[in-house]
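Researcher: Here's the sequence for the chain we discussed earlier.
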Amino acid sequence: MIFKRVGDSKPYPDHDTELRAWSDLPPRQIRLDELVTTKSTLDLETLLADDSTFYGDLFAHVVEWNGELYLEDGLHRALRAALQQRPVIHARVLQLPRPDA
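Model: Thanks. This is the structure I predict for it:
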């Protein structure tokens, strides 16, 4: 299995984090088998495009919430890594507080 689980929604609270705030988070390596996706479909044009990261962040965006790592943005990067037999991707991780905190 490539991912820990394939989801099709964002189960965590809305965080309204803008691109500038994401860019302040240092990227780190995340194993693909630790990620839960928030999308269950992928646009093949996005996956196969040579310049797919031209207009966005070079790193995937992951939300850590309730002990899980959710792949919010970068599904095409993660799948491309899996197809190249790389078990990790570089991602920026936004940690959201636990609901009981």
